[in-house]
Design goal:
This protein is of the alpha/beta class. It has two helices and nine strands. The chain has a four-stranded mixed sheet, with no helix packed on it.
């Protein structure tokens, strides 16, 4: 094979190797973006007893819902001025509120101002993409190295 033809063949081989690596990386990025799990919203219950909220402090993520359940014998409220107001929660009834912003929300019972509580709402931590993404990375590296080696053994790179 002439030097000129060999050079063209090597260029094509290098281009093919680059294209294959680009395809592998694209599939890797697609795999990571589609396999990372999205945390489902949670529902947390705050028990309202006579003269207490239990737990008194609750930490949740943005998008989670808090159910204020009145297990006491009298009417109560869960009131956070400017944020949420359950109005009257009769014994055995509940009030749900979904938190859409992060922050610290103090609340109280309007009938019993000494009954207080706090909801701490945080941004959810990003979740690790998991085993499938790691396996894809490993496969991409393996295929890239195998292709590189095959080209070297054939004297094309």
């Amino acid at each position: 094979m002439s030097q000129r033809r060999l050079g063209a063949f090597v260029s094509v081989g290098s281009a093919a190797c680059g294209f294959a690596m680009a395809l592998i990386l694209a599939s890797l990025l697609l795999s990571v973006s589609t396999t990372s799990s999205v945390r489902a919203a949670q529902t947390v219950t705050v028990n309202i007893g006579d003269n207490y909220f239990l737990p008194q402090t609750t930490t949740i993520n943005v998008g989670d819902t808090v159910v204020f359940y009145n297990s006491g014998g009298t009417t109560h409220t869960a009131t956070s001025p400017g944020n949420f107001d359950s109005m009257d929660i009769m014994p055995g009834a509940s009030y749900n509120f979904t938190f859409t912003t992060s922050g610290e929300f103090s609340y109280y019972c309007t009938y019993h101002p000494d009954m207080t509580g706090t909801i701490i709402v945080q941004q959810p931590a990003p979740e690790f993409p998991g085993f499938l993404a790691l396996a894809t990375v490993g496969l991409a590296v393996f295929l890239g190295l195998a292709l590189e080696r095959a080209l070297r053994l054939q004297g094309l790179k």
